[in-house]
Write a structure and sequence with these properties.
The protein is α+β, with helices and mostly antiparallel strands and 497 residues long. It has 15 helices and twelve strands.
Length: 497
Amino acid sequence: MFFKKNVKNPDVEKPESTEDECGIASSSAEFIRGIQKRLNNSSDVAVIDVNPLFTLIYIETLIDKNMLNRDILAQLNKNPSSPSEVEHKIHVGNVKQYELCKEALFALLSGAVLIHIEGYSVVVSAMIPSGQSRSLSKPENESIVIGPQLGFNESISTNVSLVRRYLMNPDLTNESMTMGEESKTSISIMYINGIASDEMVETVKQRIANITIDGVIDSSVLMQLIEDNSLTIFPVMVLTERPDRACSWLLNGKVVIIVDGSSLVIGCPQSFVEYFQSMEDRNVKWQVATFFRILRFMAMILSVFFTAVYVASLTFHYEIIPQPLLIPLSESRSRVPFPPIIEALLLEFIIELLREAGARLPTKVGQTMGIVGGIVIGTAAVQAGFTSNILIIIVALGALSSFTTPNFMMGNVIRILRFPIIILAGFWGFYGIMFAFCFLLIHLLRQSSLGSPFLAPFYPIRLRDLADSIVRLPLPFTSKRPYEARPLDSERYEKEK
């Protein structure tokens, strides 16, 4: 009764194209005219008449011209006489015959050369896509000291090959799908048969198949479309640019989704604690890894609640401040004309401005902007009496703590959560902070990732998975695969006898 029902108007609906469903014309001239018309006479569509028998059509910007001259034109000069002979003469990776214009057109847009033989109602497709792609480089957002220094790029074939290079296992399965009514984006769903749960794999494929969208340009868009709850601010699936991390997910029985054109791959299901784990944790001794994980969790709590505790203490709860600290606090705030909540929000907003400006500027300029801007604005704000020097330290520690989160998406969530908690602390004090904490805890308890509880192994409690959660026990204690992915084979390796 409050929303107008969305009724499709048949007069404005996009008509379905019947030209793509037609068969291949036996006349080369008629076939070429049909393809050029379907591509709106685009300027990069090239047509070559090899002789009166053979006609080639391809898109110049999508094919490898060296392979065209070496592997196709040279073979056609040997005068094969039928589509079957052409198919056997051309020695490239993927050669097929098509009888429908729709199939031939899709192959053409994928980087194929179409070879039409006069008098035949079929067309031979030879796939020779251009190999242009960004060279492999170090991961930008997930850098580590000890471990592989290699990241994914935007080519789906390269990314799949990187995974197969790490896991030379015949059970490593790669299922391809196409998504997007307009973009026709290629998607690879990878998992290890015999380890990954069949139900989980089918769930992923079904969710992708049920999506109707004009195009998917990046894997982060696909992640938002298939996650369990698209309204939560917390990411319940993880994006990574590291092949070794994707392979560790596969070995744990999880599913990895690779999207063509994106340098980030999706891993699911995931739990909350995994956002604070780094691949380097498994490459160092367990004592060092445990220390760093606990440090990251403490930094997350400090970043979210430290400024809010300052605001609540100065607004409502002076009694919790140690007496030796009261005098420096009073002197620091004696010239500040704003209440603590306005003072804290102003500084947090300035810090976010500096961080966003540094991220959008070129690398060298951005680093200089962040350091110099922070020093200049902080010093000027204290001298002008807009804020106290103690709050400068607290806000700087909170911002620094947010950078310790290994996952960029979770780091953004921590940055945003500070603002509503500060507002609640300014109005209700510690009651507001506890309300925010309970609300976040209940919200996280309700979340799931591909049907698996998001707060596992703490809720529900799973003792065997606690060995590799906030702490990381020695490797013999982590011989079982995590239960969150419901693996068919739970044994990762045998314990030492």
